Amino acid sequence: MFRKKYWVIFCSLLIISACGTAESGADENWPEDEEELTMVVPFPEGGSADRQARALTSELEEELGVPVVVDNREGGAGAVGTTSHYEGDPDDGSHFIYQSQPHFQATIFRDADYDIDDFDYIGLTHESPITIWANEDSNYETFEDLMTTIEENPGELSYSMISASWSDTSVQMLTDELQMEVTDVPYDGGAEIRTALLGGEVDFTASDIDGTLAGGGDDLHPLAMFSDEPYEHAPDIPLVNEELDDMGYDMEFPEISNARFIQVKSEFRENHPERYEELAEAVEEAANSDAFIEQGEDEHMYYTWESEEETRDRVEEAYELMSEYDYLFQ
């Protein structure tokens, strides 16, 4: 009886050891054993998020030695793609997501089944401040010109926006504080809101600097930027708070920026720490590669790498800011 009992224990330990060895072996052979990896982009093809993701996957393939494909899962201002990834994709490292701020945080305010802590954040690749823009041919040469016209014509001026994004909420924050009325006109993506302004369908828009310079070029005129400091790549754009101060308003708005980052489900890191580290190292190398950075510069998008800890801090800080205006993200 004594020998039988310990024989059972011995066999159990062998099984556990074998399982651990098999898992370790699987991790050692990753990602070579994968036919391909998938980067989920929760936005349409052709937009800035899609172009950035495809440029990054090209370099990531070189680092990992396997194909990395982009899977566009558009809809719901990022909610469709993020939800499908969280609920349906495996947590083995074969799928990860090229995420966008504030769209990700906004889905949480709209009762998503996930929260910030359900993901890990490998790193941030791009950040671009939100700016108020007018058509170059319009009568609005300055931020004050636009705001004065809005004040004198309540509800008559319109702006193009994407629901639950900074393109909408930054304008609402501004006009709510100033007790002014404007009309929002919703579109599906960044290219669409800029096209609407270029085509004269709306009077102004709020969009990030890099994406707008890439998509609108010299045909759009920047009026003011939600930032505390001038933007390195467009230093002449006025700052919102300084413009308001010159107009006699005693108020201050926070810095507001779009950001893009690589995100994985937290179970991936918990269950496959070696794979996570390999993917994280590869992403960092790809994001800092000359080819990726040059591709961005060619499109007036200036990439900058931030670490996992820095990225999580930015995601949480933006979430806290958005919490003050959560009614705008519903």
TrEMBL record:
Residues 1-22 form the signal peptide. The keyword Metal-binding does not apply. InterPro entries: BUG, Bug_dom1. Pfam families: TctC (PF03401). Keywords: Receptor, Signal. The keyword Methyltransferase does not apply. PANTHER family: BLR1237 PROTEIN, TRICARBOXYLATE-BINDING PROTEIN. Belongs to the UPF0065 (bug) family. This is Tripartite-type tricarboxylate transporter, receptor component TctC. It comes from Natribacillus halophilus.
